[in-house]
Amino acid sequence: MVSRINFVECGGNSAPLYNKDPVEANVQAIHGLVSCSEWTGVRLSTLLEETGILPEAKWLLAEGADGPSMNRSIPKAKALDDAMIALYQNGERIAPSNGYPMRLLVPGYEGNMNVKWLHRIKLVESPVMAINETMQYTYRVAGPKVWQFFFPMEVKSFITHPSPGLTLKQPGFYEISGLAYSGNGRIAKVMVSADGGKSWGEAALDAPVLSKALTRFRMPWRWDGQPVVLQSRAWDEAGNIQPTREEMFAERGAPKVNVPVTAFPMGHMNVITSWAIDPKGDIKHVYA
Q1: Starting at the edge strand that comes first in sequence, how are the strands of the sheet with 228-236 ordered?
Q2: What are the tens digits of pLDDT across the range 28-58?
Q3: DSSP 8-state class, residue 131
Q4: Cα-Cα-Cα-Cα dihedral of 32, 36, 40, 43, to 10°?
């Protein structure tokens, strides 16, 4: 068995940012569908080496034992890279709600591909076109198109302190802190702005900075009591940069509606998040 630390993020995490107008919610409601754990189990490549792989097999089907029968097509290359049959989470047997007795771990890929209650793996020649990769978990781009098989969760960061729900009591020194991660590897750097993106400073990263794991960033900051807008922007080791809203929507089309915070149909949202602080120290979500 092997152990590794990886994040798991829902494909729909941060989807409230697709809303036409800023959703008034805290950082947990907007960005909270992500976790990071130490996973222990058997590498999927070890099992596949034992069974053998026919040359025509390019994908595998991972099937769960849950009622809806969650199943996803996984590229063979990912299966032979860092995928794992996970048996333990943070040193304990995986909890029933998290997939006991075993689940698939595909580091960096969208959360639903980490199939829980795993009971079958089948090598196949092509994707099985399950409901979870055709009608669901496809992502729109500009024009009458959608993306299928768009697996890695893209580089992202957001500030957790200060953030909505907290109040700055008075001017003075504070620590800006948040989380950054990427499904394509390690975080290379995080930049922080206190003026809505006009100027930036590089934040310190807490060690260890691990691949496909949450990384804490920090920066000391003096608030003078004037209105400010806090932002963070992350880069990963693969050269990917967290996009602005304008950059993302130029590619995928701009949002046109407002929907409840719990009912967003789209995912893979990783644009820069902005928190506005007014002279009273109150903090709210804004678009900047």
Answers
A1: 201-202, 187-193, 228-236, 274-277, 283-286
A2: 999 999 999 999 999 999 999 999 999 999 9
A3: G
A4: 90
7 CB neighbour count, 10 Å cutoff: 21
Is 70 strand, coil or helix?
coil
Structure-block tokens of residue 237: 């080791």
DSSP annotation of 213: S
**Burial profile 235-255: b = 16 or more Cβ within 10 angstroms, e = fewer:** bbeeebebbebeebeeebeeb
For 27-44, b/e burial (b = at least 16 CB within 10 A) is: bebbbebbebbebbbebb
Q: Is the pTM of this model over 0.90?
A: yes
Max distance between CA atoms of the chain, in angstroms, equals 66
Residue 152 sits at the vertex; the CA angle it makes with 89 and 209, to the nearest 5 degrees, is 60
Give the DSSP letter of residue 243.
P
The per-residue DSSP string of 270-284 comes to -PPPEEEE-TT-BEE
Q: How many Cα neighbours within 13 Å face the side chain of 141?
A: 6
